[in-house]
Amino acid sequence: MKLLTGNDLASGDVIWWTGSGWSRHVADAVDVGAEGDALLASESAARRVNAAYVIDAEATTAGPLPLHIKERIRASGPTVRADLAINTEIPIVKA
Amino acid sequence: MYSYDKFDQAIVNARVEEFRDQARRRLAGELTEDQFKPLRLTNGLYLQLHAYMLRVAVPYGTLSGPQMRMLGSIARKYDKGYGHFTTRQNIQYNWIKLEDAADILADLATVEMHAIQTSGNCIRNISADQYAGVAADEITDPRPWAELLRQWSSFHPEFSYLPRKFKIAVIASTQDRAAMRLHDIGLELVERDGVVGARVFVGGGMGRTPMVAPEIRDFVTEDEIISYVEACLRVYNRYGRRDNKYKARIKILVHELGADEYRRQVEEEFAQMKALKLDPPVEELARIRAHFADPAYETGLSDTIDRSDPDFALWVDQNVAAHKQPGYSIVNISLKPVGGIPGDASADQIELMADLAERYSLNELRVTHAQNIVLPYVKTADLKALWTELDAAGLAPANLDLITDIIACPGLDYCSLANARSIPVAQKIAKRFTDSGKEKTIGELKLKISGCINACGHHHAGHIGILGVDRKGTENYQLLLGGSGAEDASLGTITGPGFDENGIVDAIEKVTDLYLAQREGDERFLDTYRRLGMAPFKEVIYG
Amino acid sequence: MGEIVNFREDAPASEVPVSLEAFLGASNATAVRIEPGEDARALLPQLDRIALIEVSFPAFGDGRGYSSARILREAGYTGELRASGDVLVDQVPAMRRVGFDTLAPNAPIDRAVMDRMLTLYDDVYQKTVDGRVPVWAKRHPEAAHG
């Protein structure tokens, strides 16, 4: 599956496309399929997201999980600061 | 230390308003991200993995107590309660909002600080020896030259869109504590016939093509240094490669032209520049120099240290350096506690260090390229009281220059360029060598970790270096041996195939065990490596 | 071509500039255009007959044109010096400092923003070719400069 992600223009927060808006939690993300580029253009133009791009992910029982470690860390928060994590349940290194 | 006059203050204040305007236009959609990016970068604002990151300049690593306190206040007010001291002697904050950035700059301006040119393809913060002004071995304080260069480079109109970033370091000792020859321009102040001038090295750097800078000129006097450096930059701006960002640093230009041809072109340009009278009068450097005059040292102070507390004695031996003035000491505060994040300090710790500087160090601190803090003016008689307060705040690891005093970039935990995490590896190594008790036995060993080829963690210059790479989507770590960023500058050599996170820790234990078995006399790890060569180290790792 | 931003007292040249190669050939053109990779010093022997030098900025991040401009002014060129191409409003102050006196931007420049940007800084740290007195000279009015 494909997810659309970026950072909030004003706050810089990592955000994920939910189908109708943006969420801080990757679990809320939806598969954008082939629509990623079109969404990216319209959402960037609307200034709701900065530096957006499409990534690969897999569906899991806990929700979408990015395939690449960099995106997993974006979804979880820094692995060395559990106190600042968004979600410590996200596996960083693939099993 | 330097303090602003009305001109400096007005320029920094104007910058705040300029950036406020630019950020507002970006938020209003008048600027695209492509257009805004170079503007925010020249003001130190990155978009990192989790948020915007703001890098604040600490010119040549020198700070006053109130400036340090403001850094703590910003961490508390605008960030998540901490900051990260960097290998460029700066501090960066990881969780900044674009909406707040101009307000932060306004706060910084109240204590004569800014984020000007802490990123982008321009002349970056000038770095210097962290012991400047107090080192027993320096011929003069290098910071007046660094301040002269800071002012000259600030908003330099010709060099705002260089092929790539540009870093300058200034030292004035034969002992190099600032990795001077690994800079785009390194200046070593030397004395000739009673006159101080600069030896100029151009084209050093780390990154994916590390190079030790060749000497381009053996002596430039203070009344010509600006026009000479201007000539160095103009040749680079005109002829540095712009076709490939990985070949755009000046080291590639100097390497491809050859040092002789680059020198010839610079001399030609310099001859023209001199005629234009671009250099400030010598009175200007004298004015700046007056700001760096020695403080009114007390005399007749005792140099005796009560070593009855063994933990304190250990810290004195490891973290306190000789001061040029009898009765005073240079104190290194290690930001490398076992289990901590190299270079990170909490708002509380930053504010405490500000207090301690005011009470014990004539109101001054330094940031080192090894991501530690220095209190440069501590009375030797105060060491015990100071240590007691540091220790209570977790700021007294006695590990300066030991294997646990690791330089590490933020790596994939924070950085959008990284390929692998650096911090967890640093933590595992620190734990392994603390648990085994070998840290002290090994002695000086500079271990440096970068999470990608850009080498912010200076891995090429580590006695032991680690480079994180992405191997088919998993983190992998290459090991390098034999680098140095000091006066014996050299570049490390990769041992061979890389390791996973645990494997790299094991490999480091093997090479240090070999060193302990083979060392002669008081050889450091680096000396033994240089004597034996790579082969036996490779053998113990892979054999 | 879009609107030209003019900082000169006379009107911008209307002649269409020729390439450096054409100019250096048997041309009697009085307007020439130089690209980022071209050596501005090639024009120095003929500055007297030039009314317009247009310096091209194909991308705003390519800063070679700043050196070209300053070199021409340092050599005494007083004719029109035009920055053309990807010229953005936040670059105008630096362009003025290296000697540009007209701009031909691809996209129109917001004059109100430009005027604000041009008046933000009362002082500058470097001596360039725009005649502004650097702060070091103001600090030492009595000193013999240079």
For the termini of chain A, the CA-CA separation is 19 Å
Largest sheet of chain A: 5 strands, antiparallel
- Write the CATH fold name of the largest domain in chain B: Sulfite Reductase Hemoprotein, domain 1
Average of pLDDT of chain B:
97
Helix content of chain B: 25-40%
Can you walk through the features of this model?
The complex is a heterotrimer of chains A (95), B (543) and C (146). Chain A has 2 helices and 5 strands, in the order βββαββα. In chain A, strand 1 (2-7) and strand 2 form a beta hairpin. With 95 residues, chain A is α+β, with helices and mostly antiparallel strands. Chain A has one domain. Chain B is globular, with a radius of gyration of 23 Å. Chain B folds into 4 domains: 6-109, Sulfite Reductase Hemoprotein, domain 2 (Alpha-Beta Complex); 142-290, Sulfite Reductase Hemoprotein, domain 1 (2-Layer Sandwich), CATH 3.30.413; 310-392, Alpha-Beta Plaits; 407-542, Sulfite Reductase Hemoprotein, domain 1, CATH 3.30.413. In chain B, helix 7 (250-257) packs across helix 8 (259-275), helix 13 packs across helix 15 and helix 15 (501-518) crosses helix 17 (534-542). Chain B starts with 5 loop residues before the first helix and ends with a helix. In chain B, strand 4 and strand 5 form a beta hairpin. Chain B contains 17 helices and 20 strands. Chain C has 146 residues and is of the alpha/beta class. Chain C has a single domain, classed as Rossmann fold (3-Layer(aba) Sandwich), CATH 3.40.50. Chain C has helices spanning 20-24, 64-74, 92-97, 111-119, 135-139; strands at residues 5-6, 18-19, 31-34, 52-57, 80-85, 102-105. The relative contact order of chain C is 0.16. Classes of the chains: A alpha+beta (95), B alpha+beta (543), C alpha/beta (146). Chains A and B meet through helix 2 of A and strand 5 and helix 13 of B.
Features:
heterotrimer, A: 95 residues, alpha+beta, five-stranded antiparallel sheet, 2 helices, C: 146 residues, alpha/beta, Rossmann fold, 5 helices, 6 strands, 16% strand, globular, DUF2849 domain-containing protein (chain A), DUF2849 (chain A), UCP030820 (chain C), metal-binding (chain B)
